[in-house]
């Protein structure tokens, strides 16, 4: 298998030349007669410029990299396709096409999360603890009880809520686990709480295992701040037999520029889907962040192709449920933070508004 | 201690308003009367807009974040200051000012690397194995012998050379360790070989320990592809008692845009220096990549302030040694890949050319 990458160059850049610079500079580099006896071996690592097309917005070059140059993970892929070259001038990675077996797969994904919840025929409804910082662990339990008993499927920590002395992660889990057990006993329903797992890589991995041992039934990871290498570790760890929700925090730092970095659809779609996430959050174009509907559609499709749950987020309200259903159909998680938590009638009423909207639609 | 961050907005953006959005949206978020009894606690997490200045290139807003919002590491810092907001539109993080005790410190840094080498009074000379991919482990040993006996201080793997079947990392180390021991025996000199450590986070950490157990006397890490959380783990691991060289691969994805992402000086200067790197590579403005001399100077100063060795790289040649000495003085590592390896007289002559240039200057 080769790895196929589309690079976009702004008007005025000699794309033919830059494509060759990438194909050689990001692989074997140059060599001279001293290495003539190794020429076959050197050439086996070279990338190949497949085509260069001039478009209205600039040029698009497609390059094939040998899979032998990388280690089957996301980090070595990023270094190979855009390591040094990311610093070479204006160029943006618009698409990465990987073999089906490249990377990791979700342990649970859409089908596994549906099985855990016992919900197969409708979108899932998710919310976020708000306010983001300032609540105690007991507050988390109180809020969770309101929304869980009202029918919510999933709740997650706010991404900026780490393991802080004011509300330690294990204490938040204990307060919420109690609610999970109550709901299960009373209704038979499972409610997931995606606990934000943080810390230096070694501790984060140990923290994740400890959370699962203590009853966490889902995890949240800020993949782009902590590293794809951390997500891949959690995804491959058998002790972590719960779904991992990938958060897009920091994605704009590498995706928001029109001329540099990588497309959102690459980072939040292709790479997340090949790194083992079970569900991926990303901005929805209906929402409170500016987002391109075409990028959103690409993310949705890349994720679903590998059984990963798409979670359009940020500014999701009950009023736009019909539009989401048109765009997404049933295999989607409706993630509403303030859309549920700041509901005028209270958080429980916010949850019921989403289920009413789903029934009407 | 507070965390002070400068955000730059392009002309036309209401910077006063955006600064308030950051100060609230990236911290507590909003709350209503239900949380009135927790108001003091919520307010303790709010960030504060210190000033907003309108400049020629747009506006600059300075915001103070409570250190209580984060966990003393880089990943939680990135989520707190630029997690969701990175996706909110055009804004660039131009500076981050952290308390002296924030994060990690290098185990060795400038003074420790100099002690290991026994070289105190001149810049260090470093090279990179070239061609990047396609050499065998034995080739590495052969090339290393040439440059090490010619007086080189440090060599590193190319950043795209991972743990590939064609040249496994442990075999490269074995071939080069032999040379390190020969040079030591013959001349008393220590030569460092920074071995590229790769893999998923759990394996990478174990690989790093294994490399050190097997005689690695330096490591190379592609920090931005693998994650700051991984660098911080290695930096804090007592078993890894060798210098860690941080490579800037992928930095352009988050730094190359004028309007989004973070300044190179933040990522390759401030954050690397507070994440425990012993030496940090970055493009030099003399070199083959486009780079702003002001950013370079800021990186140099941020690193040295925490005893971290600056390693200006990419296109460094013996001819520009006098200029580097003017800009850097003695505490610098001169890192020449092709500048040494593609020297017309061979790699050993390339090393000698650098030492000649240092003596003349």
Automatic annotation (TrEMBL), chains A, B:
Protein's name in the database:
2,3-diketo-5-methylthiopentyl-1-phosphate enolase
The segment(s) forming the Ribulose bisphosphate carboxylase large subunit C-terminal domain are 109-279
The answer, when asked if Magnesium is one of the entry's keywords, is yes
Q: Where are the transmembrane segments?
A: none
Recorded source organism is Lusitaniella coriacea LEGE 07157
* InterPro entries to which the protein is assigned, alphabetical: RuBisCO, RuBisCO_lsu_C, RuBisCO_lsu_C_sf, RuBisCO_lsu_N_sf
Tell me which UniProt keywords the record has, alphabetically. Answer: Magnesium
Top-rank lineage group of the source organism: Bacteria
- What biological-process terms (Gene Ontology) are attached? carbon fixation
Give the GO molecular function terms. Answer: magnesium ion binding; ribulose-bisphosphate carboxylase activity
